Prior knowledge:
Blueprint: H1 6-22, H2 26-31, H3 38-50, H4 69-79, H5 103-114, E1 120-123, E2 139-143, E3 146-153, E4 164-171, E5 180-186, E6 192-196, E7 210-219, H6 230-266, E8 268-269, E9 272-273, H7 278-306, H8 311-340, H9 350-358, H10 368-382, H11 384-388
Helix pairs in contact: 1-4, 4-6, 6-7, 6-8, 6-9, 7-8, 8-9, 8-10
Amino acid sequence: MYGLTAEDQRIRDTARAFVDSLIPHEAEAEELGGHLPPQLAAQHHDRAIELGLYATNMPVSVGGRGFTALQQVLVQEQVGRATNALAWVMHTPPQWWVDVATDYQRERWLLPSVRGEKHEAYAITEEFAGSDVSALESTAERDGDDYVINGVKWHVTSFNLADYVFVQARLTNGPHEGDHVLLVVDLPSPGVEVVRTPHYSHNIPDEHPIVSFTDVRVPATHLVGAEGEGMLFTQDWFRFERIMVASRCVGAAQRLVDEVTAFARDRIVDGKPLGDHQLVAGMLADSATELFAARSLLYEVARGIDAGLDRKVLHGQASMAKLYCSEMAGRVSDRAVQIFGGRGYMRENVAERMFRELRVERIWEGASEIQRIIIGRQLMLRGPQAILEPS
């Protein structure tokens, strides 16, 4: 099914078996606020690397696995089956960095990240600049051989685990004044402080604090690419991560369909299985149908990436995948809670955890409304065939 090769299936099955070994730890992680004992978390990290499930998006030339886009999707789909972000140990470093990293950046950050020795975070979003990153107010001023960064970033995912952070800011001087730059800041660094760490609906070990950058001085060697190119790398990351979000949503929906179908088969109400009652059967049918459609869409977009379709086509299709898969997973999780009934409202139940965790998928990496704008704009500017029937 889905036209997977033998190697595709091997990769998928390896990832699935690994995630199956993580799932028994979900309840413990939930009780601990998302954090497993450090030794156990380290074991999971090392196991992901050993199985070849780490840095799957990176080429072999830098020590990555060199997986196709479809194979990366297959791995991240399995990541989505586990709650509490336990499977985030199958990490994907920035895929765009390989082509622009200097020798210095390659040795200092890129290669150690591919080996799993260092971890990054992105400091892009601000209080009044979310999905529209063009409204950023953080600044970077060139001062001799350095840049000086000032600003406050929100939702800096994985900051508590990161060894360095990408900071996007707007230049205040020089020939590219007003343009964006992307700078690498080692952690810790003077002037970098956590303002506060909000509590979120989900319980995962990767925190999302608000972080201030006050007169943070970094050498020009920490500039990624060139001045004025910062937005390009962010857009590339958004395109990639939107596909990964879609993948994890499909995996989450599959887990829920599996769990709730088993419950509906075993739970007896009025002398017959719960799933034999028509209204429940209808919810199961809707969830399975939408899951099948979402997975088919996702795999087709991944194959388009592997086929080298035009970047604008892929930009629109990535938005379609992220929009539909995240919205689908939200509907599936809502139905799952309803079918489980009171059990589905208990934190020990997978449906309750998924219900909380999946809500953010319609917000981060570009809210659903932004995806609709992107898709609609492509239809108006280039016509339906451009993204629905690309040549």
